């Protein structure tokens, strides 16, 4: 249940601001009410969903400040992730890495924006797995989910396709055992991503009817 909701949020099927009506989710997923409630509670604890008095639950809409904080946290965590990836770990996960890079290349060559965002995001989560450090990868999973909200709210419509080549460069450094170089490339990559965000975009969050009327 938690995965079903968080995946829908990650792929922007439930964009920021969407009201989450428990009864509708129970019906749509033929799910148990208690399971839906506890999944929503978990998402609230992870800052993915916000509950406001009298307004119920909705998918969170991170502020510009929160977006910057998430990126600062990603810089710390993801540099840690790559520093934890030895050449041995790269070898152990080579099949998953190759399959991912193929899927990412395929997506970025097309024009399905959701597929592109999903694959570009998956790269970061995959590196979390490759690090074989559950603490880092759990923190990273949360940060990536929060990033998907940020991308939905603040990223320009055109997605720079250089992201795929930056991912490739990080992997090449790791394959050579150059963890310091990979960490530096990751830092550049995240700075690049953050610079693509537009915090004064007019196409900003849809009006929350509930908030507007109360
Ligand atoms: Zn990336």
UniProtKB/TrEMBL annotation:
Would the keyword Transcription turn up in this protein's UniProt record?
Answer: yes
Which domain of life does the UniProt lineage start with?
Bacteria
**Which GO molecular function annotation, any one, does this entry have?**
DNA binding
Q: Which UniProt keywords apply?
A: DNA-binding, Transcription, Transcription regulation
Domain HTH gntR-type as annotated: residue spans = 1-62
Q: Which Pfam families match?
A: FCD, GntR
The entry's protein name is: GntR family transcriptional regulator
**What is the organism field in this record?**
Marinobacter psychrophilus
């Amino acid at each position: 249940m938690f995965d079903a909701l968080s995946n829908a949020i990650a792929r922007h099927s439930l964009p920021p601001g969407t009201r989450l009506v428990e009864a509708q989710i129970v019906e749509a997923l033929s799910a148990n009410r208690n399971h839906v409630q506890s999944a929503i509670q978990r998402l609230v604890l992870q800052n993915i969903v916000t509950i406001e008095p009298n307004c119920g639950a909705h998918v969170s809409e991170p502020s510009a400040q929160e977006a910057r904080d998430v990126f600062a946290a990603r810089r710390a965590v993801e540099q840690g992730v790559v520093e934890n990836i030895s050449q041995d770990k790269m070898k152990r996960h080579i099949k998953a890495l190759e399959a991912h890079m193929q899927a990412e290349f395929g997506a970025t060559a097309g024009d399905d924006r959701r597929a592109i965002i999903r694959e570009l995001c998956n790269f970061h989560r995959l590196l979390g797995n490759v690090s074989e450090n559950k603490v880092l990868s759990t923190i990273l999973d949360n940060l990536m989910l929060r990033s998907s909200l940020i991308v939905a709210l603040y990223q320009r419509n055109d997605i720079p396709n250089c992201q795929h080549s930056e991912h490739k460069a990080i992997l090449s450094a790791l394959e050579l055992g150059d963890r310091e170089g990979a960490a530096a490339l990751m830092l550049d990559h995240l700075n690049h991503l953050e610079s693509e965000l537009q915090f004064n975009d007019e196409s900003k969050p849809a009006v929350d009817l509930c908030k507007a009327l109360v």
